[in-house]
Amino acid sequence: MAHFEKATSVKDWLNQRLAIEKVEKVMASEYWIPKNINFLWAMGMVLMITFILLLVSGIFLLMYYQPNVATAFDSVNYTIMREVGFGWLWRHIHGVAASVVFLIIYIHMFTGIYYGSYKKGREMIWISGMLLFITFSAEAFSGYMLPWGQMSYWAGMVITNIFSLGGLHLDGLVEWIRGDYVPAQAFLNRFFMLHVLLLPLAILGLIGLHFAALRIPHVNNQDGEEIDFDAEAQKYLAGDKKGSKVMRFANDFMSKDMMVVGIYLIFFFYLVFYHYNFAMDPVNFDPADGLKTPAHIYPEWYFLWSYEILRPFSVNIGLIAFGFAQVIFVLLPFLDRSPNTVPANRRGAFGIWFWLLLVDMIVLTAMGKLPPEGAFSTIGLVAALAFIALWIALPFITAKEKKL
Amino acid sequence: MKNKEPIILAVVVFFTLVTYYLVEPYAHGVMHKHVESENYAYDDLPAINKTGDAARGKDLVLGAGACTGCHSIEVAGMPAPMDPVTAASSYGVNPPDLSNAGVIFDGKFLANLIKNPAHALMVEHKFDASKGQMHPMTQFYGAGGDLDQEVADMVAYLQSIAVEQESVTPAMAYENACGRCHALKYENWTQIGTKPSFKYKKDELAFDIKVLEYEDSITKYMGKLPPDLSMYIRSRGEHYIKTFVENPQNYLHGTAMPRVGINAESMDKVIEHLEDAGDTKREERASVGANVMMFTIIFAIFALLWKKQVWRDLH
Ligand code: HEM
Q: Which CATH superfamily does the domain covering A25-297 fall into?
């Protein structure tokens, strides 16, 4: 048994049992961050804050939401929106945060791609990040089912249909997922469970993994500089705060994180109070009706690019392309064969690849929402093919890159 | 080294706005037809250039016009000839009380309605007199004098008994213009009136059965049950509802919903009522919003100052 002494203070008491000073050092004051990073590195913290907003608002909504096909719609639109004090506020925060979190995730991902932050020991950060992306997607989708509006029902129908896997006709699998022939009570119940329990648990675990994966390689920087963290930390601790290339996470970088969070929250609450419609589709304010197909069925904006990769092809090819799009980002660290971990603008062909991918995904997003007619379906098809071509080309163009 | 953050921010904002523009305003512009308001002018209907006389109108409305054979006029002490459920089983829908018709509906529209209901209501595709499909509201063929003068007199009478435009409440506008067809559950409104609170379950069930019977009749009459409008202010929005009511055929060609001929002021009240139902907390949202924005800006300023202070030692 370890040796314990009479504590001199509460802190000492805790220290003997939990090593809080050590933990504080490892996680905050001696977690070293390069100085040459910009506000894009605050997106992780912005995501964390947005996730907390989702969690807290979700807990409040959960106190009144009823997972029953007969009452779900009214429990949200009547009880929460009208009866419960500030229920409307929690709902708008939850809805807007669920949409904005994806904007920030995409910025965070493209930051990682631009600066090559998925290489040289940072592979696990990237992979855990992609797992977060996938669980967030599932979380958003399952949450979208809960108000049991027209879009809940029909998006639920369309997306679960994907699991019949086209020519394989796995209708049994679709029924198994739905618990019924069509989305109904069993379907709502299980997506409720996923949304409020299993997926949030997975997300919490994955956030832990993501942070753990960051600790050893440290974060990248905007100049592709290799930093000797131990030496620079010594310099800092010896008093040369100005000369050292690193700073403490807390309070040094955290103060900048908070500044960015402050500006972000202005934008966020502006959306919550004055511009929420983009995040809460009007069609979903019509109660679910299995006999009335809406004129246009489309997923929320953050799924549109992958939806558009599914749509322009015949069923089987579309599904293969869709599957490709879902996994290909995870493999990025292994598809990029270049030895350089520097910003894309210094990597020649890869720099062009980056901007093409970004623009292509925006085009896919737009076409995924527009009705698949005339020029839109042609543009969608070209953009989907371009997406696949870009990823196939990636190993070849990066292998050619010269060591800088 | 020069500070790249402004340009990075500009790039992020640029791509965010482009994406937003494409998936929201642009895509919705392509998917949904945009209809401009006609300002409730009902330009397709001919004006009646006669000055009406309310006293003569009264005799016509209560007499030769036969309006009270189907409609109640409570302010004139004329009760409804039938209860709503029975009325709906005869006419398909309960003819509305006319006490305030003069202030809810447009004057020119009312005159045209009296002369030819199917035409004014824009439901001639369903009610074609030449094929023997008669609109349940009978056309007024005249009481022997000048038709236009008689119609103008009746309209003048209806306008004279109605309350002032300023006294039209949101609920009143809704109940008169839409309430006979559309329930509004979140405001406790059924097509046969406000649902009372009952002491005994039995009475409540009896009421519910009446509503169901009424809904059966109206479904038969219109081909489908008019939807409950509780959340329509969120699902359709103000612009759509306003332009839809002006002329439902603009959006849903061949629809059974009539053009109700409401005037612009009363339509604003209908919208207010729909907001009360489906966007109840809009005022609270505005006031809480202003406070939260103020707090967040103060938070951001303090965060900025803190960052400046911490970083002074770092560079
Ligand atoms: C909502 C979930 C997420 C949270 C809470 C989160 C949080 C964080 C935090 C706090 C950091 C460190 C600070 C920073 O560089 O921003 C970080 C870094 C990173 N994250 Fe995430 N992240 C999430 C999702 C993702 C996703 C979806 C990806 C993409 C696959 C990703 C990839 C990365 C990478 C590559 C880094 C390292 C950046 C560098 O070394 O410069 N993360 N994340």
A: Cytochrome Bc1 Complex; Chain C (1.20.810.10)
Task: Give pLDDT tens digits for A211-266.
Answer: 999 999 999 999 999 999 999 999 999 999 999 999 999 999 999 999 999 999 99
Q: How far is A273 from chain B (nearest CA, A)?
A: 5
Domain-located, residue B117: yes
- Does residue A48 have its Cβ closer than 6 Å to ligand 1? yes
In degrees, rounded to 5, the angle at the alpha carbon of residue A157 between the alpha carbons of residues B233 and A369 is 60
User: Which atom of ligand 1 lies nearest, measured to the CA of A45?
Assistant: 10
Question: How many angstroms does the Cα of residue A241 sit away from the middle of ligand 1?
Answer: 26
Same domain, B195 and B77: yes
Specify the pTM. Answer: 0.94
- Asked whether residue A50 carries a pLDDT value surpassing 70, the answer given is yes
Asked if A113 contacts A332 with a C-beta cutoff of 8 angstroms, the reply is yes
Instruction: Report A:128-187 residues touching B (Cβ under 8 A).
Output: none
Q: Give Cβ neighbours of residue B52 (< 8 Å, ≥ 6 apart).
A: B149, B152, B153, B154, B155, B156, B157, B159
Reported as a pLDDT band with limits 50, 70 and 90, residue A2 is confident
Find chain B residues with C-beta within 8 A of A29's C-beta.
none
The pLDDT, as a whole number, for residue A1 is: 66
Q: Give me the residue spans of the domains in chain A.
A: 25-297, 311-404
Whole-number CA gyration radius for chain A? 24
Task: Please compute Rg for chain B using Cα positions.
Answer: 26
Number of domains in chain B: 2
Domain that holds residue B10: 1-31
Closest CA to A329 of A349, A357, A362, A307: A357
CB interface of A with B, residues 53-112, below 8 Å? 74, 77-78, 81-82, 86, 88-89, 92, 103, 107
What digits encode the pLDDT tens for the residues A267-326? 999 999 999 999 999 999 999 999 999 988 899 999 999 999 998 898 899 999 999 998
Question: How far from each other are the two terminal CA atoms of chain B, in whole angstroms?
Answer: 12
User: Which residue type occupies B195?
Assistant: K
Whether A301 has its CB under 8 Å from any CB of chain B: the answer is yes
For an interface test with B, the pick among A101, A104, A370, A376 (most B C-beta atoms closer than 10 Å) comes out as A370
User: Which atom of ligand 1 is closest in space to residue A118's alpha carbon?
Assistant: 35
**B112 and B120 Cβ atoms separated by less than 8 Å:** yes
Ligand 1 pocket test, pick from A51, A124, A125 with the greatest ligand atom count within 8 Å of Cβ, gives: A125
Instruction: Check the CA dihedral B194-B196-B201-B207 and report its sign.
Output: negative
Are B137 and B20 members of one domain? no
